[in-house]
Amino acid sequence: MYITEPLSEKYFKIFMGAYNDFRINCKKDYRFELEPLIYDDFIEYFKKGIIKCILLLEDSIPTAFLAYSEAQDNAIELYVIHCLGVENNTEKRKLLVEAFLKETEEKRKTSLVSYPMLGIQESFKDVIRNYGFNFVNLAVLNFPITDKKETRALEKIRFTDLPIGYKIVQYRDLYKEELRDCIFKAFSNTSDVNFDPRFKTINGVNDITNKLVGEIYGKFLNSASRVLLYENDVVGFSLANITGSHIANIPLVGIIPEHRGLGLSEVMLKMTVEEIIKLNKQGVINVDELNVSTDYDNLPAVKMYEQLGFKVTYTYPQAFLPISSSFSSFSSSSSL
Questions:
Q1: Which of 159, 190, 197, 216 is deepest in the core (most CB within 10 A)?
Q2: What is the pLDDT of residue 324?
C-alpha cells in the first residue's frame, strides 16, 4: 500500500537513497543541465523552506518523491517527480500530484503551478492533463559549436546594414534598467507568461533581469550579450550565459513590438553566437554545447534559430496549472 507524506526529519536518513538515485539519473532521465543539489544541501534548503518535498512511502520506505518551491510570489515551481524503478510509476505519480495539490491549495488561490516535464516525465502528460494542467510545447535547439563546418557556414551569413538610427552594442551594466523594461515589453504578451508570471510585471521582470546579470542562473557572458539601440534607447537584446560546466545558453532574445519585422533579432543572435565561438576558441570559456529554448509553436522564432545553424534536439511539454483552474478539491483518480 502506498502512503504520501510531507518530508520530515524522521525520514532524513532513509530518504537519501531515493534522492541520490534521482541525482545519478538526472541527466540521462530528466535532461537536467545543472547538477542537482547534493543531499545535505537539499536538506538544508528544505529546512529553510526554500524547497518543499512530498514522499511516497511503500512499507514505510520512500520509493518516490515530488519536489517543489513556493518561493516565487505568483508561482509554484514543481521541479521533479521521481520514482525508484518502473513499477506502478503512473500510480505513484498520481498520488504525489494529488498530495501536492492538497498541500498547495491555499497558495494556488493566487499562484499558478509551473512544471517542466523534462525527460521521462513527458510520459505522464496525458494523466496530468486530467488535473487541469495545460501545456506549452518547448523546443531545445543546439548549435554545433565545435563543428568547424557549421561555424564557417555561420560566418558566411551576411545581413544588410542596420536601418538608420539602429546600432547593436555589447551589454554593459548601464543598460540594466532599460534592459528590464525592454524584456517586459517584449515578453509580457508571449506564451512564457503562462508558466512564468514574472514576465507579466515590471517587478517580476526585474527579478529575472537581476538573476540573469547577477549570475544566479549561471555565469553571465557580458561580452557575448548584445543590446539593440534605437536612437540610444534599448529596444532589443540577445543574452548569453553558461548554465552548466560546459554548456553555453542563450536564455532570452527579443525586440519590443514596434521595432519587429526588420530582421534585427537574427543580427543580434548571430553576433552573440559568434562571440561565444570566439571566447571558446580563445580559451576564455570552455564549452562543448550551445543551446536555446523556445516555444515550438512560435514558427518565426524556430525558423530564425534554424537559419543560423541551430537544430532542434528535443521538445518537452512545459505544463502549467492556471490560477483559474487551480481547483481546491477533487476526487482521487487512484485506486489501490
A1: 197
A2: 64
Among candidate residues 286, 45, 75, the one with its CA nearest the CA of residue 36? 45
Q: Pairing relation of β-strands 247-249 and 289-295?
A: parallel
Whole-angstrom CA distances from 250 to 140, 204, 292 are: 11, 20, 5
Identify the three-state secondary structure at position 335. coil
**How far apart are alpha carbons 142 and 147 in whole angstroms?**
12
pTM of this prediction?
Answer: 0.88
Residue with cell 495539490: 101
Give the other-Cβ count within 10 Å of 310's Cβ. 24
Complete edge-to-edge strand list for the sheet that includes strand 134-143: 2-6, 52-58, 61-69, 75-83, 112-116, 311-321, 134-143, 289-295, 247-249, 241-244, 219-220
Q: 226: which 3 cell numbers?
A: 548584445
Strand segments, DSSP code E, in the chain are 2-6, 52-58, 61-69, 75-83, 112-116, 134-143, 166-170, 219-220, 226-230, 233-238, 241-244, 247-249, 253-255, 289-295, 311-321
Could you tell me the three cell numbers for 115? 512544471
Give CA–CA dist 263/180, Å, rounded.
Answer: 22
- Nine cell digits for residue 258: 514596434
pLDDT value at position 35? Answer: 83
- Find, among 155, 285, 167, 269, the residue nearest to 220 by Cα: 285
Angle in degrees, 0-180, between the axes of helices 202-213 and 176-187, rounded to the nearest 10 = 120
Please check the confidence at residue 272 and state whether its pLDDT lies above 70.
yes
pLDDT recorded at residue 135: 96
